[in-house]
Amino acid sequence: MEIRKLVTVSALIMIVLMALGIVWGTVRINEIRMGGPIQTNIQSASDLIADIIPPSAYVIEPYLEAALLVQEPASLAMHEKRLKELRAEYDARHAYWKAHSFDPVLHERITHATHDTAMQFWEALDTKFLPAVRSGDREATDRAFWHLTTAFDEHRQAVINTVTLATDYQERLRENAAQRLRATMVVLGMLVVSLFVLVLAFCGIVRWRVLRPIVNLSQQMDRMATGDMRFDDISAGRRDEIGAINRALGGIVGYVRTKAETEARAAMEIQQKVVAELGAGLDRLRQGKLGYRIPDDFPHDYEALREDYHSAVESVESAISHVHVATQALNASANEIGTATHDLTQRTEMQAENLQTISATTRQLAERAQQAVISSRHVSSIVDEVQQQADTNEHVVSEAITAMGEIERSAASITRITNVIDGIAYQTNLLALNAGIEAARAGDAGKGFAVVATEVRALAQRCADAAREIKELIGESSEHIGGGVALVRQCGDAFQAIVERVGHVSGLIEGIVGAAADQESGVRHVDEAIRSIDRMTQQNASMGEECTATARALKVEADKLREMVARFEMRPVESEDAAPDHATPDCALHAA
Q1: Domain spans of the chain, in order of start
Q2: For the HAMP domain, which residue ranges apply (predicted)?
Q3: Spatial distance between the Cα atoms of 292 and 171, rounded to a whole number of angstroms
Q4: How many Å apart are CA 281 and CA 293, to the nearest integer?
Q5: At what angle do helices 138-205 and 60-71 cross, to 10 degrees?
Q6: pTM
Q7: How distant, in Å, are the alpha carbons of 257, 259, 268, 277 from that of 263?
Q8: Nearest to 317 by CA among 573, 80, 60, 578
Q9: Class in CATH terms, 304-565
Q10: Nearest CA among 9, 5, 6, 15 for reference residue 199
Q11: What is the pLDDT of residues 199-237, one digit of tens each?
């Protein structure tokens, strides 16, 4: 953390702590001050005790014992004992207040005026009232109690006067305590304000007299670290530690500046010498004198620059010598390229004519293959229609077989029904026979019933005959239906064989169609390839012409380059690489 922030934070912490201390002290002072919560609670407890317990310095309880004794003379011993205890407590409290020092007027009232009236009460009690009670004289007891009451009234009035004085004294004490508390709080407030002012003044002095100069020095050091050696000695006139630091830093800056200027002058002289030598070498290089070398050695720090210059010149010299050799080879290669590209152009034109003839032939083949594909597809569609019709007939035959089966099952059902009818006719005939027998037994009364029974039997016989005829017809029909079902099944098998043969033919035709389509596609691809070759051949012819023109231009540029290289003066050196063989150009290779 920065010192400036640390000082600010410390000041804020001190102010907060002082504020908390002031608040805490104010609360505590308010608690213990006169009239505060603690004193009020103590006063309340004292008042409560005074209200509950009769005070020992007030003879009200002895007067009560005397009044009880008037009412109960027989309990003299008990009340007399209690009166002795109360007298001892009174004497003890009187001795306490007599020895206690406080307000003189109040002290005189409680130790003399109140005590004198109390002693008169005790004297009347001991000399008059108790002897009268002991003697059992009621009249003497009443007179003694009257004197006792008179003494008690005087004592009570003295106590009331004393309480009034004590109340006034208490009010004066409270007022005095309040005045002192106010004076104390004023003094404490002034001290707190002074302390706050001192803390703020201390923080301001630290910030302006210590932190600000330190920040200025830090900023100047940061500038010096970046190479800016300007120094502002604002605090140099101070006679404290900040001024000493500022003056010391100024001395360091002066020393560094002087040393830097000296080293800069020496470096400048060396650089001027190096620049002059390099300038001379570059001037020789500009003139084309590649054999020049810098004779004098450079200083140690610049010797690498001299060596780099020599290496660069040697590299340029070697490169130019290689360029000279390469230009000769380039000139020869340009001549060969021109001849080869001319031959390539002629052969390419002949090849283009042959490709045009082949392209026309392949186009005719493609048209014929396309016509074959169309015909085979037409045949395939006809075969598909035949196969669909055969499938339809097969479905019809299958439905006919199903219908024949249903008819056969229906005939079987009719046969069962005729059997039932035959059984019913037989039962009816038996019933009619029994009815005739019963009618014969009945005599004349059963004649009409006998006629009915005869008719019923005849009807039953006709039903049985009809059922038998129907059964015979159903049997013949079943035989014919069975034969028809067999024939229909044979017809279905024949149609199934036809469908299989048609499917096989359809597959063969589809293969023919696929082969024709593949052949047509292949011929088309061949035609496209031939056209592409034709285009490429024409492009090759154009490129051959361009290569010829380029070779001629290359020969011209090679001649110019050879003339430019001839201007350089080089040291006589042997080339490490022999002149390259005249490589066969790519154009010549393609021409072959």
Answers
A1: 3-219, 304-565
A2: 208-261, 269-321
A3: 122
A4: 7
A5: 160
A6: 0.34
A7: 10, 6, 8, 21
A8: 573
A9: mainly alpha
A10: 15
A11: 888 777 777 767 777 777 777 777 777 766 666 655 555
